[in-house]
Automatic annotation (TrEMBL):
Transmembrane segments: none annotated. Its main location: cytoplasm. This is UDP-N-acetylenolpyruvoylglucosamine reductase. It comes from Hoylesella nanceiensis. It is an enzyme of class 1 (oxidoreductase). Cell wall formation. Its cofactor is FAD. The gene is murB. The active site is at 163, 237 (proton donor), 333. Residues 17-187 form the FAD-binding PCMH-type domain. Pathway: Cell wall biogenesis; peptidoglycan biosynthesis. Pfam families: FAD_binding_4 (PF01565), MurB_C (PF02873).
Amino acid sequence: MKDLRNYNLLSHNTFGIDVECKRFVSFETTEEVYSFIANRTDTDLPTLVIGEGSNLLFTQNYPATILHSAIKGIETTPCSEGILVRCGSGEHWDDVVDYCVSNGWSGLENMSYIPGTVGASAVQNIGAYGSEAKDVIYRIEAIDLSNGESVTFKNEDCNYSYRKSNFKTIWKGRFFITHVTYLVKKEFQPNVRYGNIKAVLAEKGIEVPTLSQLREVIIEIRKSKLPEPSEEGNAGSFFMNPIVSRSTFEALLAQYPDMPHYFIDEEHEKVPAGWLIEQCGWKGKRLGNAGVHAKQALVLVNKGGASGNEVLTLCNTICNDVQSKFGITIHPEVNIL
């Protein structure tokens, strides 16, 4: 267990914001979590649990204790429905995807190259290209930080929806996730309906991709659109794609016939936030030391030395412009602290 005071978080947030926390505790085992809970004091509160910091924006120093999972390990168990893959919450998400694809197990491949940890996948309900973590999460093991008791959640307990779960709402800050078990399949049915996957496959002369080929194409697409945090600090997609009513969608489509969109149900349609932001003229622009990525308007970037408040100001300005132009409210996907 690492236990550090006045700890700099520059390497623990992919935005590259230079802030500190009062105390930083990193756990490698569940026993270390129990020990911390038994010995903590009021000065540790409120505690904040983080993974790789790939979905965080710090606007100030954190005045208390940050808890970090370094719990590793991957265990597999065959079952009648496929393979149960139990992972430590500190495992890098894409390493788990790579592990499953290498073994010929499907279900995670469309979420290739998403930054972050296994624990964060269960909190955030990460997703990409028509797949979400909730589609594969089978069981979550956690420790209740309020009383030190162990608890196990089934998928249906977590109230998953688009980029949301009970861990982000009514349970926020209450549980430290130690392990997540995913249910993956031995059979592979490629899902190529979203984004430009089909186009890239066609360029490569691939009609029906293998599991590995689909992962490779998705990684290629993501790398072409998203900057590496080591080059430009960012948290990936900063905004959630808004889901609008059928009447709002039809009115917008009449005005913007080329507007991209994705069917949700008979009453709702999803509109890409990146497209809305680009139509407002923000793609490639900057405000102080914060900017909008030149290749993907959904991504806000640290152009060098940006503070969290500069990024937040840019976020709020973009939200106001989208609301003014389209009458649509967009919300950050990133957790702002």
